[in-house]
Amino acid sequence: MDIEAHKLDVEIRKVRDWTVWSVLNIFLGWFILGIIALIFSIICRNKKRENDLESALKWSKAAFIVNLVSTILGITCYVIFIVFIVLAGVAVHTTV
Questions:
Q1: Mean pLDDT, rounded, of the chain
Q2: Span between the terminal Cα atoms of the chain, in Å
């Protein structure tokens, strides 16, 4: 293996595909965005196997952004849901 091929191999291994985060976002974040992120992660993994560094980086960044948005929206929805539950409980106890 020549030096250039070794450098490419090292660089391609550093590219993250965010697959686990994508799967978690399917269940804990927004379902549709989690599916989209998982598709991007799988494409990134395939590009890594093909040693296509430029495309792998592009799809990794896309998966990261979609995962980030899905996580933020999911956390926001959970917080709003909890606030409504607490406010509903307080309203029930104050009216009785």
A1: 93
A2: 78
